[in-house]
Amino acid sequence: PLQGAGALFRIRLAGGSAPCAYLSPQDPRPLCHPAVDRALQLSGAGGPPHVKLTVEWDVSTKEHLFGNIQEEVVQDAESVQLQQQAHRQQHSCTLDECFQLYTKEEQLAPDDAWRCPHCKVPQQGTVKLSLWTLPDILIIHLKRFRQVAEHRHKLTTLVRFPLRGLNMAPHMAQRGQAGRQLLGRWAPWQPPLCLPPSCPRDYLYDLYAVCNHHGSMQGGHYT
Question: Which residue numbers delimit the USP domain (predicted)?
Fold first, then answer.
């Protein structure tokens, strides 16, 4: 350490408003800061909640310690590389896995907490999407774009699906036999199939058509 150099640098929360965005060097737990809490709540997609910190050096002190470095290369820590690998795109998945993810139970964010009518304390609830009825013609729109910070990327994961007998029964909401009778009959052109008793005919689909987008975010065409 330099004798009498004072503060070598300041750490600022990226995107925050000065002066509240600077972390205090006297605080033994500098990340326990309201500005950090707000940034975590506003962090976008692309991994777990995270914040960005900027180290602002005193220029003369920095040049004295490291010299005049025009191009600095900072090696990522191993934890950063592991997170990047964990969020890389899969090579392929099944349409059934897409539906499992779509109907997966999720915990609401702290901002969406609801007040319990009994204890009067905000609680983080959960939300789960379920399918109640199915149409004669089922149109599935796969989300192919992903927002990471300020950038959008096209997802190139190959989705595998059956050409005949797509079974939607595992993704339907559980209900009684009376509600199941309201769905109506399968289309008359459907040839008879050997179905297990647990799989109603109304829940099976054959592939009729596929529309694919070729290209990037900047352009392309549909076939």
Answer: 1-223
- Positions in the chain whose pLDDT score sits under 70: 1-6, 15-20, 43-47, 68-73, 84-90, 149, 175-201
Looking at residue 4, what is its pLDDT? 59
> Which positions ≥6 away from 1 have C-beta within 8 Å?
none
pLDDT in tens, 131-174: 888 889 999 999 888 777 677 778 888 899 999 999 998 888 87
Strands (E), the chain: 9-13, 53-57, 92-94, 106-107, 114-115, 122-123, 126-127, 145-148, 151-154, 158-160, 166-167, 204-205, 213-215, 220-222
3-state secondary structure of 107: strand
CB atoms within 10 A of CB 2: 9
Q: In angstroms, rounded to a whole number, what is the distance separating the alpha carbons of residues 180 and 203?
A: 11
Residue 61, CA distances (Å) to 3, 64, 68, 71, 126 in order: 11, 5, 11, 17, 51
Q: Is 154 helix (H, G, I), strand (E, B) or coil?
A: strand
Q: How far is CA 137 from the centre of its chain?
A: 29
Burial 139-170 (b: 16+ CB within 10 A, else e): eeeeeeeeeeeeeeeeeeeeeeeeeeebbbee
Q: 153-159 long-range CB contacts below 8 Å, 24 or more apart? A: 153/217, 154/216, 154/217, 155/89, 156/89, 157/89, 157/90, 157/91, 157/92, 157/93, 158/91, 158/92, 158/93, 159/92, 159/93, 159/94, 159/95, 159/98
